[in-house]
Amino acid sequence: MTEAENAPAAGVRLDVWLWAARFFRTRSLAKQAVETGKVEVGGQRPKSSRSVRVGDALRVQRGDEVFEIGVRGLSDSRGPASVAQALYEETVASKQAREERRRQRAAARDGYQPPEHKPDKRARRLIRALGDIDAL
């Protein structure tokens, strides 16, 4: 059997497709995301039972990331990541926006360097001395 024979003819439930395309770890998380408005189909808030068809435009918000994708294939079963990535195509603008946000988050945390080890006795005394200055 080929993938075309496995794929449903008319459409697949939105929450099932999001799970099969590996946007969410479980179908219930996909359903919850749809119900809370984190998924849009054609600019509208759908129900989780809405059928997804090839050519639909989706906007999926997952954490800090926003994906704008077009549906290229249908599947109601979860497979390997390589197969899941063939089910959709992300827009170039969406990829660039996600990369820019990723760079901004990396730049924001560049300033902080966590200590490599606990402070020794001398460093603890210096820390306490700095604390005494604030008390004045």
How would you describe this protein?
The chain has 136 residues and is an alpha+beta fold. The protein is 42% helix and 17% strand. It contains six helices and six strands. The strands form two sheets. Strands 2-4-5-6 form a four-stranded antiparallel beta sheet.
Based on the model shown, name its key terms:
136 residues; alpha+beta; disordered N terminus
Describe the secondary structure blueprint for this structure:
Elements: H1 3-6, E1 12-13, H2 14-20, H3 27-35, E2 39-41, E3 51-52, E4 57-62, E5 65-71, H4 81-85, E6 88-90, H5 92-108, H6 121-135
Antiparallel strand pairs: 1-3, 2-4, 4-5, 5-6
Helix pairs in contact: 2-3
What's a quick, concise take on this entry?
With 136 residues, the protein is of the alpha+beta class. The protein has 6 helices and 6 strands.
How can the largest sheet be summarized? 4 strands, antiparallel
Order of helices and strands: HEHHEEEEHEHH
Mean pLDDT: 87
Shape: elongated
Q: Kindly report the spatial arrangement of strands forming the biggest sheet.
A: 2-4-5-6
